[in-house]
Amino acid sequence: MLRVTKLSKAFGGVKALTDLDLSLDTGEILGLIGPNGSGKTTTVNVLTGVYRASGGSVVMDGVDVTTKKPEQIARSGVARTFQNLRIFKTQSVLDNVRIGQSIHCTSFFARLNAVKTGAEKARSLEADQLIARFSLADRKQWEADSLSYGEKKRLEIARALAMRPKILLLDEPAAGMNAVEVDKLMHIIRSIRDSGIGIPSDQLESIFAPFIQVGRTLATPKEGTGLGLAISRDLARAMGGDLSDAPQGKSPTFLVAALKDAIGANLDRIQIVKGWLDKDGKTQERVYDVVVSGGRAIDADGRCKTAVGSTVDVDNATWTNTIGAPELITVWKDPQFDAGQRAFYYARVIEIPTPRWTAYDAKYYGLKLPPEVPMIHNERAYTSPIWYTPAK
């Protein structure tokens, strides 16, 4: 359905995309994942005609759309959402969805003809169905700006689907959503995929379940770009690296290192999170503390039971870096490795306790918050996963 070959985009001397190859077939979900600046949104903008490619080609259903205008690409069957919301704030939910449908009314006379033939009534029913599908039926006549953030995100996807696309591009669809909103979005995207629409997204890692088997790798990161792609017949996320079939009797060994942020808190510990499919096909997960600060002991089960402590002064919303470590590094080997079992690994770095935003607000505004409001937290960072797949 979609074939991209050696796609490139440069802004002056800055190469945002270089020789990107990818393909997308009907009913597949494509994950485009990478760090900030790796070219995810640029890819979406080039595919939709917002940016003109510097090189390469984009072919949609056998038709080269590389140099087409955005509205021509949209009419060919490509719809998108935006990293930053692009809804019509003062228009109703219904009007926002109907605006998406207007891409197929190319003139005033086409609109009149739609009214005469009954197509307009069918579009109105279709809009109502889309609104209901995204759990917005009771807000149909609300101004879009009065919706919650998660509802606005869903509205933007509904508007894109109103264009009747063959391919739906989602630019950070779950950014800023809470866990409940993400779950709703995950269910909706699965249902969209099941309807036969291809879905490229640049945030699958954040919105889908902890472990889903990857079907096939389409492209690997280019040197210096950090941009990775993977695709599956089910929801997939893959980035970081792949381990080949393990030699007999060998376990994977990881060099793990982390350095504190220059203006941030010291580090408490580094963890390796391992996930795998057991013999019954069920997902499993285990967390290992692989290196901790302050000379604390790691028990035989791979966990450190001794807390790092806390220097937080809640009343003044301050802390000190007198505990923890500015840098942690170790070499870790999986003690329970099964060479015949699919698995993934990622590192989680945890800082020492620091004031939560509620503590800063309480200090600034002179508030007395209820005791159940958390005032301290541990910031953390995650790496991309490394996947292990045994030989077939």
**Domain module tally:** 2
* Average pLDDT reading: 80
Stretches with pLDDT under 50, minimum 5 residues = 202-239
CATH superfamily of the largest domain: P-loop containing nucleotide triphosphate hydrolases
Please give the count of helices: 9
Radius of gyration: 24 Å
**What share of the residues does DSSP label as strand, in percent?**
25-35%
Relative helix content? 10-25%
What's the N-to-C terminus distance? 29 Å
Helix vs. strand class: alpha+beta
Overall body shape: globular
Instruction: Please tell me the CATH architecture of the largest domain by its name.
Output: 3-Layer(aba) Sandwich
- The sequence of SSEs as H and E is EEEHEEHEHHHHEHEHEEEEEEEEEHEEE
CATH class descriptor of the largest domain? Alpha Beta
CATH topology of the largest domain: Rossmann fold
Main pleated sheet: 6 strands, mixed
Strand tally: 20
